[in-house]
Amino acid sequence: MTNSEKNSSITSTDYLNLCVIDGILYCIYKDIELVDLETAKICVKQRIEYSENKSYPVLFDITRVKQSTKEGRDYLANEGNDLVIASAILIGSPMLKMSANFFIRVNKPKNPTQMFTDKNSALKWLAQFKS
Fold it and tell me: What letter does residue 42 receive in the DSSP assignment?
């Protein structure tokens, strides 16, 4: 974490750490065994409350998520994308990479969405969507 990230105001929920840095919303998932529909709905509600109904390009760091259900992914790709200008999904494991690729191809999120294994590349890509 850079100094500017350490100094920004971070809100922590049961499932997420949330903060806005330089016009990008960081949505960092905590250690979660399974993102099912209920968990996905809670995470989206918390993100929207945190952002006070303002749209942002979002870095979704899911490197600590173990698995997700089809229902959870479907929700995140559709209703769960409200107020998201663009999504950069940061992943860590080959299993998550398969899951994220599948998510993008099959669920077809309603906003620009790309998967990254490098945080700096993700932030560079998201920068084009800042207002």
Answer: H
The pair of structure tokens assigned to 84 is 């998201």
Write the pLDDT tens digit of every residue in 59-87: 999 999 988 898 998 898 888 899 999 99
Q: What are 72's two structure tokens?
A: 């959870």
Task: Give the fold, CATH level 3, of 3-127.
Answer: Transcription Regulator spoIIAA (3.30.750)
Q: What is the mean pLDDT of the chain?
A: 88
What is the rounded distance in angstroms from the CA atom of residue 99 to the CA atom of residue 83? 23
Q: Which long-range contacts (CB under 8 A, 24 or more apart) does 75-80 make?
A: 75/37, 75/40, 75/41, 75/44, 76/35, 76/40, 76/44, 76/103, 76/107, 76/109, 77/103, 77/107, 77/108, 77/109, 77/110, 78/107, 78/109, 78/110, 79/44, 80/40, 80/41, 80/43, 80/44
Of 128, 78, 79, 121, nearest to 103 by C-alpha is: 78
pTM for this one?
A: 0.87
